[in-house]
Amino acid sequence: MQEKIDQLKTLIGEVIDLQQTLGVLGWDQQTYMPPAAAADRADQQSTIARIAHIKLTSDEMGSLIHDLASYIGQLDPDSDEARMVKVAKRHYEKQTRVPTEWVAAFTQVTSLAHEAWVKAKVSSDFSIFQPHLEKIVEMRREYAGFFQPYEHVYDPLLDDYEPGMKTKDVKTIFTALRPQQVSLIEAIRSKPQVDDSFLKLEYPEDKQLAFGKEVITRLGFDWNRGRQDISVHPFTTGLGMDDVRITTRIQPDHLATALFGSVHECGHALYEMGFQAKDRRSILGTAASLAIHESQSRMYENLVGRSKSFWKYFYPRLQAFFPAQLGNVSLETFYRGINRVSPSLIRVEADEATYNLHIMLRLELELAMMEGTLRVADLPGAWNEIMKNYLGLTPENDAVGVLQDIHWSAGYFGYFSTYALGNLISAQLWECILKDIPNLPSQIEEGEFTALLSWLREKIHNPGSRYEPQELVQRVTGRKIDPQPYIRYLNQKYADIYGL
After folding, report:
1. Quick check: 374 and 382 in contact, CB under 8 A?
2. Which of 180, 214, 319, 493 has its CA 20 to 30 A from that of 373?
3. pTM (two decimals)
4. Catalytic residue of the set 115, 265, 301, 366
5. What is the model's pLDDT at position 228?
6. Which helix (H) or strand (E) holds 323?
7. Angle 290-104-112 (CA atoms, 0-180°, nearest 5)?
8. Among 166, 188, 215, which Cα is nearest to 367's?
């Protein structure tokens, strides 16, 4: 059977090579590709996606998985071979239900949609993007149809990002979470607001970028294995175990955008850099899920990057970069300012107390589009209405409303809920981290992040995709995804900042 194990590894490695090649094309499209190349790039991506799908769903792949399925029953279920076959079988069985030509067509549709979204966002004109999104929604509903019967049309989409998770599970978690977050927001509203005006001065872009690089270097970002560039919407892509690329977005009049965006993407990158060397070109050398991925980025951005311990180390250096803007701003004022709670239009700039409401808004709209109760043409109005209901704000234009996120142009329906789930997981993990490393806040005050990264490497990064997300969370914390640690974290943090 070892020969068949090796054959399966070879096939999987070839599929991963193709998928990472797609990643290179996508990274270039969002960073350096000239706009006129959109049609050529769509054809290239469609071709590579078709070849990858053919290889993934080949008879050879199916035969190997079938022959090995009985063999792995004799092995330790946690062995690399058993886990590899189990994960490969799951991917194979799901992808064989999707026609190759659909995959190729969808890849081309979303590639072209990206350029339309960029133009629509720049001009704040949803009509430019609308026909592309209508086609994407139509195809995502068609995709869900490949997996009938299902409990909910959204289930197959969610499962792409959160294996084993159902729509009803997310709804249950969000139903328990929302009133507690709303209660916290209302309590904060009754208190005097903190000042963050110093964050909205003019900050030279080159210095913002330089400081951000200093920070993520200290956190553990390996520049020999990664790079950072500028894009319309920040993202991270793993193009190989030693090729992890992040981007950031800089606003000259808003310090927090690039700063926390860089730290957020660094959290993603550290996960991508943390898979085991033996899992190179292996299906196990990938993330457990998008929520686990987001738990890493949100942990570094918020539980680490917005903590007072973090800024006790980094704030003097930040002041040295920007003496005119921050020289007379105390550490306490700065700390309170970067943690100000105030409903805002833009998800990526939202504070921790209101962020999950942005996700719930998107989930509500996605469910309505997938269920067929909301037309794409009516999406901007529905967005504005729910934004008013959830956060008391109405976008002045589409660019800061329905067009603010890149995700729908890529067809990522089912993705958004992973951000909120990632928040919950990050706090759940953090409670365990502090038990295992009780002096971690003191370490962070000294700019020392080695113990934190080592803990995450062992518990979260090294396992890769050996376990489904809920299984991984339970193995590490003793229970499945639980919103209460996150609520405890928020309540404790903002009680201190706002005197609740």
Report:
1. yes
2. 180
3. 0.94
4. 265
5. 97
6. helix 323-326
7. 80
8. 166
Cα–Cα distance, 465 to 475 (Å, whole number): 13
Q: Report the C-alpha gap between 386 and 390 in whole angstroms.
A: 6
Helix runs in 1-95, H state only? 2-31, 38-56, 59-71, 80-95
216 with 313, same domain: the answer is: yes
Pair (44, 185) in one structural domain: no
In a 10 Å sphere around its CB, with 0-12 CB exposed, 13-18 middle and 19+ buried, how is residue 73 labelled?
Answer: exposed
DSSP labels, 261-273: HHHHHHHHHHHHT
Query: Residue 288 belongs to what domain range?
Result: 167-498
pLDDT < 50 stretches in the chain: none
Q: Is residue 152 part of a domain?
A: no
Q: Which residue has the tokens 């890529």?
A: 410
User: Among this protein's residues, is 458 annotated catalytic?
Assistant: no
Q: Is 295 part of any domain?
A: yes
Burial of 76 (0-12, 13-18, 19+ CB in 10 A): exposed
Residues 6+ apart with CB under 8 A from 171: none
Query: 112 with 217, same domain?
Result: no
